[in-house]
Design goal:
Layout: H1 3-17, H2 26-37, E1 41-46, E2 55-60, E3 63-69, H3 74-89, H4 100-104, H5 113-131, H6 139-150, H7 152-166
Parallel strand pairs: 1-3
Antiparallel strand pairs: 2-3
The protein binds zinc ion.
Length: about 170
C-alpha cells in the first residue's frame, strides 16, 4: 500500500472531523485545528530572496508559530502552510518542554520520517482542500479504501493524531 494513498484517507478523515468540506483554505484549516487542539496557531509570511527556506514551525509558550515563504504562487504558499500544519496535526511539534532548538531543526533535515510524512500530508491535503473527493465510490475504490483503513500505517497515523489531541 502506498503511503500517499494512506495519507489521503487520513487527510479526509481529519478534515471531516474538523468540520471542513472542500473546497477550503489553509487559513480555514488553521482556525479549525487551533480550536480542536486548544492552542493558538499563528501563521506569518516571510519573504526571503533566494534561500532554501520554505517554512518553519515552533511551539512557544502554549502557541504554535508558523512562518511560511510568501514569494511563490498562492498554491505554493498553501502547500507550505499545509506542510507546517501537517507537523502540528501529526504531532511532530511538542508543546511540552518548549525546546525551540529541537523544533527549529524540523524542516532542515529533509530525510527524516517526520519530514517525509509532512510532505506527503501536504500533497494530500492541498489536493483534497482544492478538489475534494468522489462522494460515490466504485466497487474497486471502496475495496482500496477498506484495505487502506485496515493497514497498520493508517491506524498509526490516527493514533498519533488522537494522542496529540488528548494531550491538550
Ligand atoms: Zn517540515
Amino acid at each position: 500500500m502506498r503511503q500517499a494513498a494512506i495519507m489521503h484517507e487520513v487527510v479526509r478523515e481529519v478534515s471531516t472531523e474538523l468540520g471542513l468540506r472542500p473546497p477550503f483554505t489553509a487559513e480555514e484549516y488553521r482556525r479549525a485545528l487551533s480550536l480542536a487542539i486548544g492552542h493558538p496557531i499563528e501563521m506569518t509570511p516571510r519573504s526571503i530572496s533566494g534561500r532554501a527556506f520554505s517554512g518553519s514551525c515552533r511551539a512557544v509558550q502554549g502557541a504554535y508559530i508558523i512562518q511560511y515563504r510568501s514569494d511563490g504562487s498562492l498554491i505554493q504558499q498553501e502547500r507550505i502552510k499545509y506542510h507546517q500544519l501537517g507537523h502540528i496535526t501529526l504531532g511532530h511539534v511538542s508543546m511540552t518542554g518548549d525546546d525551540d532548538r529541537a523544533v527549529l531543526s524540523l524542516c532542515r533535515a529533509l530525510m527524516t520520517s517526520e519530514e517525509l510524512d509532512a510532505e506527503i500530508f501536504a500533497d494530500a491535503l492541498t489536493r483534497y482542500a482544492l478538489l475534494g473527493h468522489r462522494e460515490t465510490l466504485t466497487e474497486a475504490q471502496a475495496g482500496t479504501r477498506a484495505r487502506i483503513r485496515a493497514s497498520s500505517a493508517y491506524s498509526d497515523y490516527l493514533d498519533r493524531i488522537a494522542g496529540m489531541r488528548s494531550a491538550r
